[in-house]
Amino acid sequence: MKTCTAIRHVAFEDLDLLEPVLCRRGFSITMIDAPLGGVEDLDPLADDLLVVLGGPIGVYDEADFPFLSAEIELVRRRLEADRPTLGLCLGSQIMARALGARVYPNPNGKEIGWSALTLTDAAEASALYQLGGHPVLHWHGDTFDLPHGAVRLASTPRTANQAFSVGQCGLALQFHVEASIQGLERWYVGHVGEISATPDISVASLRAQAQADGAAMQTIGPTMFSAWLDQVCA
Which residues pair with 170 in a beta bridge? Predict the structure, then answer.
């Protein structure tokens, strides 16, 4: 049986839509709650797949959250060995940092809501081509420089580096393909402080956007993920 370890930072930002894909493909899934410990004990090369999920903290917050240092080192060693690794939002920032790139607050401000990506030629030739023209969920305040040796796959007007690949088996997505419309109801509660402090968004507007723009991604996100798994975990 293939194995997947997923690293979670807050309980409501989980695998969601991606979990059924992994189960159908026969993966055994281990969920690690990073704040509770255990990341430092992981063998970086043992699992067939590592997924590093999102969360409301910054990669540069190691002083407050020391487990981030263990995550960065785990991901660095895994990418160095070109083992299948997927980073989502905070996970993509951890991948960028592990590769030596700078991660910092986005000077263009937070990007929260649904909008389409501009895909690069490299993305059009990859599993990400299925995302073209479809709004995806953005929920981030940080961004990163493109790591040395990485290939940019997507951007938006506010965030130049929305996705990159590294090696044959590393994929970093600053946006979310895993969040279901139903699962987002947990996000609205968990992130209510951030929502209320961010101009021009509200729980009601985000919920309406999800209903209007998120329906297609409930199928396209898992399909894209499955196509990527075909390439890296055949």
Answer: 85, 166
